[in-house]
Design brief:
489 residues, mainly alpha, 3-stranded antiparallel β-sheet, 16 helices, binds 1-deoxynojirimycin
Length: 489
């Protein structure tokens, strides 16, 4: 039986003392346009601009403080990204993972970091087009096409990282990493659609590169490779998700159905990652690298939903198994780090790491820490989920997601349905948005002077690991886009 909205609001307050529930703000927001599909390549500047002014309307003081910090941090992050593109001493289109050249040396262009970062730049361009940003997008393409045609140790498109002069890194490394070509194909397709360029650029420059990456994905998807964290050789949920998306994007961009059948095979494989646990287990067919990831819990499953969800309910942010996994990850991190001790009373989420057994401290292996981009993945996930539920017109609770929704409505059971615009639907949406905000608040606490490195020291809360990590800033831009009601493409 469903609760009346008053009882639901009361219950929310009792059940989730952590969260300030910004009822007014979310009510204002829920009238915003959520009809822009997340897969649309061109989020128009108008829709992005109009919806981004919605949240602050009648916010509580704490809320509007967070909203203005998110605005401020978005600008800082955009500049942080641009500062790491074409840094001094690099060839055009080189996007460094971080300006840090030693301890740790992150002065490389990782295909993954670069492709995900350029999607944040694309969001900036779609929101506020400029010739300067067109140049940045095209420079990315130039650098990547060069990389695709450069000799590499793996002698394949899955070479993980490239030097500032455009040559490939030849030292020992976990290779190949086959998420890279898939992320690059999606990025180039999004760029092609956004540029809407009638010249031969799309046909002669972008299209052949996109095909090359997609054909590589078709050839390699069922082979083991290193994961996005560069540590484990196996078949990975994250890698398969970005591959599936690339193929579906490619089939539609190239009007070529031949990619669709591989996408379907991948989909069947993806379903096998949710088995006898209440969450998605990250890797199968482990065949080398780190062997201590015993739980299978990994925040990359949620990042996959954010970057590779396609609005079709298949492992999208608002889908049941993803939500279930988010709950399991939140629980495992709740008492892992000393800094999470302040989480329950202060409106701060738990700080989230890559996976519970992680040992990478940002420089070497000792004890791992929470990451900015993993913590931000939760904020983005929940705002994307809200967008998805509004577009779908309802939330359907299943066996898998019941425990997730019970955090916000103790009467939620498998089969419960919340219809858009009902009081119960609005209460859930408000509570999930409030939960999402706690992740922003957590990041705000540790982003000293707005900067974001890779990790947050688990004991002191200080920034550690590579400074000004490009991917941290890119993750902020997309999380803020989702917060503002226009998730990035
Ligand atoms: C560097 C990699 O980039 C990182 O992901 C990994 O955790 C460490 N090496 C330790 O293997
Ligand atoms: C280590 C991370 O695990 C990996 O995902 C990333 O590509 C590199 N650092 C560079 O940021």
């Amino acid at each position: 039986m469903k609760l009346s909205s008053v009882a639901a609001a009361l219950l929310l307050t009792l059940a989730t003392p952590v969260f300030s529930v910004p009822l007014e703000r979310r009510a204002a927001e829920s009238s915003g346009d959520s009809s822009v599909p997340t897969t649309s390549a061109a989020v128009s500047a108008t829709s992005a601009a109009s919806s981004s002014s919605a949240p602050v309307a009648s916010a509580t003081p704490a809320d509007s403080e967070l909203a203005s910090w998110i605005d401020e941090e978005t600008t800082f992050s955009q500049n942080g990204i641009l500062a790491n593109i074409n840094p001094e001493g690099s060839v055009t289109g080189f996007i460094t993972a971080s300006p840090s050249k030693d301890s740790p040396d992150y002065f490389y262009s990782w295909t993954r970091d670069s492709a995900l970062t350029i999607r944040s730049v694309l969001h900036m361009y779609n929101t506020s087009p400029s010739d300067d940003l067109v140049a940045v997008l095209k420079d990315f393409v130039t650098f990547q096409i060069n990389a695709m045609n450069t000799d590499t140790v793996c002698d394949c498109l899955g070479e993980p990282k490239f030097n500032a002069d455009g040559s490939s890194y030849t030292g020992a490394w976990g290779r190949p990493q086959n998420d890279g070509p898939a992320e690059r194909a999606t990025a180039m397709i999004l760029i092609a659609n956004a540029l809407n360029d009638n010249s031969s650029y799309v046909e002669d420059t972008l299209t052949p590169a996109i095909k090359q990456d997609l054909d590589y994905v078709v050839e390699t998807w069922d082979q083991t490779c290193y994961d996005l964290w560069e540590e484990v050789n196996g078949l990975h949920f994250f890698t398969l998700m970005v591959m599936r998306r690339a193929l579906i994007d490619g089939a539609s961009f190239l009007s070529d159905d031949s990619y669709t059948s591989t996408a379907q095979e991948i989909e069947t494989k993806l379903d096998s990652f949710y088995g006898d646990k209440d969450y998605i287990e990250v890797t199968q067919q482990l065949s080398g690298g780190a062997d201590y990831k015993s739980s299978g819990l990994d925040t990359s499953t949620l990042i996959a939903a954010n970057v590779a969800g396609l609005g079709d309910g298949i492992y999208t942010p608002g889908s049941d198994k993803i939500l279930a996994t988010s709950l399991a990850i939140k629980e495992v991190f709740s008492d892992l780090y000393a800094i999470n001790a302040d989480s329950n009373s202060t409106g701060l989420s738990y700080a989230i790491g890559r996976y519970p057994e992680d040992k990478y401290d940002g420089l070497g292996t000792s004890e791992a820490n929470p990451w900015f981009l993993c913590t931000l993945a939760f904020a983005e996930l929940y705002y994307r989920a809200i967008d998805e539920w509004k577009s779908a017109g309802s939330i359907e609770v299943t066996d898998a997601s019941a425990a997730f929704f019970q955090q916000f409505d103790s009467s939620a059971v498998s089969g419960t349905s919340y219809t858009a615009d009902s009081d119960d639907f609005n209460s859930i949406v408000q509570a999930v948005a409030a939960e999402a905000d706690t992740y922003f608040a957590r990041v705000q606490k540790h982003a000293s002077d707005n900067t974001m490195s890779e990790q947050i020291d688990r004991d002191s809360g200080e920034e550690v690991g590579a400074k000004d990590l490009t991917w941290s800033y890119a993750a902020f831009v997309t999380a803020a886009a989702a917060y503002n009601g226009s998730p990035s493409a």
